[in-house]
Amino acid sequence: MTSEAVPAQETLGYEQARDELIEVVRRLEAGGTSLEESLALWERGEELAKVCRRWLEGARARLDAALAEEAAQDEDGED
């Protein structure tokens, strides 16, 4: 798996990004890479972390919206 394997875009699923990020971290922690490769891995990890963060923020927003809708329905039903 190279750092250029898959572009870190919205099309990359959360699980894919998370799994690749885990692999990037593993490779960085293992050492034995050149400075250039380590920097490329670090940059890839940053991209993947952003993708994961966007997915999690989106999930949180959807959950908050669903909870707000449920609360509004509960309030309407109590009138």
Verbal overview:
The chain has about 80 residues and is mainly α. The chain has one domain. About 75% of the residues lie in helices and about 0% in strands. It contains 2 helices and no strands. Helix 1 runs antiparallel to helix 2. It is rod-shaped, with a radius of gyration of 19 Å. The mean pLDDT is about 90.
Please give the count of helices. 2
Q: What characteristic shape results from the CA principal axes?
A: rod-shaped
Distance between the termini: 59 Å
**Total domains, how many?**
1
Helix content: over 70%
What is the tally of beta strands? 0
Largest sheet: none
Report the portion of residues in β strands: under 5%
Write the element-wise H/E pattern from the N-terminal end onward: HH
**Are there runs of 5+ residues with pLDDT below 50, and where?**
none
What is the residue-mean pLDDT, rounded to a whole number?
89
Rg for CA atoms = 19 Å
